[in-house]
Design a protein that fits this description.
Elements (H helix, E strand, L loop, with lengths): L9 E2 L2 E2 L5 H13 L2 E6 L5 H12 L10 E6 L9 E2 L4 H13 L3 E5 L10 H9 L3 E3 L8 E4 L6 E4 L5 H14 L3 E4 L7 H8 L4 E4 L2 E4 L10 E2 L4 H13 L2 E2 L1 E7 L6 H8 L3 E10 L2 E9 L7 E2 L11 H8 L5 E4 L12 H12 L2 E5 L2 E5 L6 E4 L5 H12 L4 E4 L12 H7 L3
Parallel strand pairs: 1-14, 2-15, 3-13, 5-6, 9-10, 18-19, 22-23
Antiparallel strand pairs: 3-4, 6-8, 7-8, 10-12, 11-12, 15-17, 16-17, 19-21, 20-21
Bound molecules: shikimate-3-phosphate (S3P).
Length: about 425
């Protein structure tokens, strides 16, 4: 019998997307802080992680070039001679501000045009309360100078669910050997907590609060970085919206604080299977298999946002192909990411011919069968570029992404992998 010829987009294959970005930053930082040698396998080799590696070198850490198997030798750090250039990376600036404050060093942080617009008062405030002197540009962003002094313990009520804020405080407290408690409105990603525990730091977690005890040593530990769920998400979405085939994403980090997008997809009717689940280095890991599915629109509420914050651009693109309306609320944080993601998404989608509306803290999208055509403006935002790359790969759509190269911030091989899985 002749093979059935399904028109449109057919996908196939298995992808091990690159290492998780959040875990890669932290593997380097904790490797540099710990006294002793740590091995890191499968680190993400992307622009953001190069920024952290370079900044740690400027702080005196011995960080070899990024490679699939690397060794780090932690030792005392010193103040850098010139400003720390964090490039596009908010995690680099905010977590290293915690290192500088806790280790009682002095450093000025700078970044690219996008990072230079992002809010830093959210870390300046708690770090000042912990004894550091922090100077910011008048609009509350970079350049930022942090000067650490004797570190004071803190009980901090954060108004945002931000893993970067939480991590800066915990890192400063551990290095300064003081107690710290951070309470956040919703639980943000918890890789810092897991890594501290794996390094012998005593930590108490209670709901959305975490507390570290004073005076603790950070022991060295090996890390095998799992595949980034935020990168795997692009291929899961592609398979769901394809016309035929299946994609298998292996080794994906399935930490519950990161898998909100996959949970929402199931609620939309997605055919998703997870298997080969295991624990590796304190993180849940597994394989995801995705197949073409008829999706329907859903509403995303504030409590779901932190566990899918980086996937919301992709969700918006996906919602243009779902039946009915999709709404995201309680996601004002999107306005202060690598671009104002609410404005960027809705502007692009509307221009391409989709029905989308901005809300102050989210967006509303009406799915349809209509073809989307035109140019997507990334504003240099990697996740916008890749989300529209997926939308453009779907049958019927014709989308040009203005700056595909910015995907290198988190996924340098994205466009090659995207070509490879299409037949
Ligand atoms: C990150 C935390 C999140 C996320 C970012 C990476 C981290 O930011 O959006 O991509 O590694 O801690 P916030 O902490 O600002 O929510």
């Amino acid at each position: 019998m002749a093979a059935l010829n399904v028109p449109g987009l057919r996908v196939r294959g298995s992808v091990r997307v690159p290492g998780d970005k959040s875990i890669s930053h932290r593997a380097l930082i904790f490797g540099a802080i710990a006294h002793g040698s740590s091995r890191i396998e499968h680190i993400l080799e992307s622009a953001d992680i190069h920024s952290t590696a370079e900044a740690l070198r400027a702080l005196g850490a011995t960080v070899p070039p990024l490679s699939p198997k690397m060794y780090l030798q932690g030792r005392d750090m010193h103040s850098p001679r010139s400003p720390l250039d964090c490039g596009n990376s908010g995690t680099t600036a905010r977590l290293l501000a915690g290192v500088v404050a806790g280790a009682r060093l002095r450093a000025t942080f700078i970044g690219d045009a996008s990072l230079s617009k992002r809010p830093m008062r959210r870390i300046a405030e708690p770090l000042r309360a912990m004894g550091a002197h922090v100077e910011l540009a008048p609009n509350g962003s970079l350049p930022m100078t942090v000067e650490g002094h004797k570190v004071i313990g803190i009980d901090y009520e954060s108004s945002v669910a931000s893993a970067q804020v939480k991590s800066a405080i915990l890192i400063a407290a551990v290095l300064g050997r003081v107690r710290a408690r951070v309470h956040e409105p919703h639980l943000s990603r918890d890789h810092t907590e897991r890594m501290l525990q794996a390094r012998g730091v005593e930590l108490r977690r209670e709901g959305t609060a975490v507390e570290v005890a004073p005076a603790q040593n950070v022991l060295p530990a090996d890390v095998r970085v799992p595949a980034d769920p935020s990168s795997a998400a692009f291929f899961v979405a592609l398979a769901l919206l394809a016309d035929a085939g299946e994609l298998r994403l292996t080794d994906v980090c399935l930490n519950r604080t990161r898998t909100g997008f996959f949970d929402v997809l199931r609620r939309m009717g997605a055919k998703l299977e997870t298997g080969d689940r295991r624990e590796e280095g304190g993180e849940d890991v597994g394989t995801i298999v995705a197949r073409p599915s008829q999706l329907h629109g859903v509403e995303i509420t504030e409590d779901e946002v932190p566990s899918m914050i980086d996937e919301l651009p992709l969700f918006a693109c996906l919602a243009t192909r779902a039946d009915g309306e999709s709404i995201v609320r309680g996601a004002a944080e999107l306005r202060v990411k690598e671009s104002d993601r609410i404005a960027t998404l809705v502007g692009n989608l509307t221009r391409l011919g989709a029905t989308a509306e901005e809300l102050p803290d989210g967006f509303r999208i009406l799915g349809s069968r209509s073809r989307l055509r035109g140019r997507a403006e990334t504003h240099g935002d990697h996740r916008i570029a890749m989300s529209f790359g997926i939308l453009g790969a779907l049958s019927g759509n014709q989308i040009e992404v203005d700056d595909p190269a910015c995907a290198a911030v988190s996924y340098p091989e994205f466009w090659n992998d995207l070509r490879r899985v299409q037949q």
